[in-house]
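Posted in: Structural Biology > Protein-Ligand Complexes

Title: Requesting predicted complex, C2E in pocket

I'd be grateful if someone could produce the 3D structure tokens for the following input. Sequence and ligand are given below.
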Amino acid sequence: QAKASGPGAVLLFEAQMQDQVSSRARLQRSLAEALQQHAFALHYQPQLDQHGAVVGVEALVRWHLQGHGMVSPAEFIPLAEKTGLIAPLGRWILHAACSQLARWAHVPGCSHLDMAVNVSAVQFQQEAFVEQVQEVLAQTGAPAARLKFELTESLMMYEIDSVIARMKALRALGLRFSLDDFGTGFSSLAYLKRLPLQQLKIDQGFVRDILDDHNDAAIARTVIALGESLGLEVIAEGVETEAHRDALQQWGCRLYQGYLFSRPLPVAQLGEFLQQRAGGPLPP
Ligand code: C2E
Ligand code: MG
Ligand code: MG
Ligand code: MG
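-- Reply #1 --
Done. Output follows.
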């Protein structure tokens, strides 16, 4: 591309690359510092059933970088995976989510809430991951039966038997599993039926256009049917409008998450949201 735009463009291109590399290096340093300075927070996005009841939340990590604003996890999680920082960051996320879950166990109206935590494939495949989960559960006193890990299809790139063994070990502790961003990655149906999953999560990329795009609608319907025939729950992410929700509901999807109901919220605001909804009418 640079070549085609003349000799001056090559220099510009290189300068840009240099820029990217150094801002990446800067981001990487900041990430390491942020871990030490506890600059991360979890926000929680409600998940609702077809009656409009909040059945759980997804924990989503947030990083406020000074002088830079919010950095998207879509940007720093892959970086953390590449640099190995995902290990301490992932541990922090798990601990924070479990601490919250343990607190909810004693709050009326909150003890039924499930906590979904995103676990990156790199983190999941760490040698001591199962022990780490056990340790965090013990330290925080969180009820394992309320804890759910959102895994992605990138796990399928690892040796499948070791992935299954690890999932089973965590199942034995009481945890459940959701396959996040389903349909965007490497899933083979042969693997899918072997994984001890409880839930499929329809990717927001399919949900977004179900009303206009026949193919996306067909994919969403297929995932819902697949979940049903495999005995798995199906949840749709990225539900932004009532029309989305109605279509999904009509196709048999019973669980929803998206801006229609709520953005990811800091815990105090989540409390207000839950209070408002308790006994409230159907959404919104
Ligand atoms: P994800 O797990 O698929 O999370 C869903 C993303 O969609 C979140 O973005 C959420 O804020 C956003 N979202 C929710 N509802 C809507 C909606 O109605 N419309 C639209 N357009 N977007 C919606 P977020 O928080 O920026 O996270 C992006 C990705 O970063 C996540 O995708 C996940 O892959 C990763 N991530 C976030 N938090 C964590 C974490 O704690 N650990 C790990 N390993 N990854 C995380
Ligand atoms: Mg997720
Ligand atoms: Mg997702
Ligand atoms: Mg997604």
